[in-house]
Amino acid sequence: MTQDDGGAVRPTVTRGTRPTGAGAGRVLVAVYGVLALAATVRAGYQIVRHFDEAPVAYTLSLVAGLVYVLATVALARDWRRVAWVAVTVELVGVLTVGTLSLADAAAFPDATVWSGYGQGYGYVPLVLPFVGLWWLWRTGRPSPAAADDLG
Hints:
- There is one protein chain.
- The protein has 151 residues and is mainly alpha-helical.
- Helices cover 64% and strands 3% of the residues.
- It has helices spanning 25-50, 55-77, 80-103, 124-140, 144-150, and strands at 2-3, 9-10.
- A two-stranded antiparallel sheet has the order 1-2.
- Helix 2 packs antiparallel against helix 3 (80-103) and helix 3 packs antiparallel against helix 4.
- The chain is elongated.
């Protein structure tokens, strides 16, 4: 983080990279934020009201929600390393839980955010980590103007 002459704190941007939460990244942050809110609130309600019915599923939904919260904050604040880890954990989670929930439906008596690869959320949980990883990769590369400055 750096501080400009006006006292505003801005994320430190590596030479030539673009902030993850700027431009089209704002839409990505917004989608992550909505999914974070939806998953966390749903999991909280299920844990408080019905935890004994499907503790594994509800705990996994809470973990997913917290991963989305972390990814949202990391992308918005341009915390690249944290964002890479959060989005990678999200991808592994949705692929693992999605596969297990289809292979052994009895193990998941109620759906999680990642069940059926995010079927209950319109498959957004399946697509989102791929978009997030692509965005991190794209914004982490030097822009054409910055590449000209280096040469």
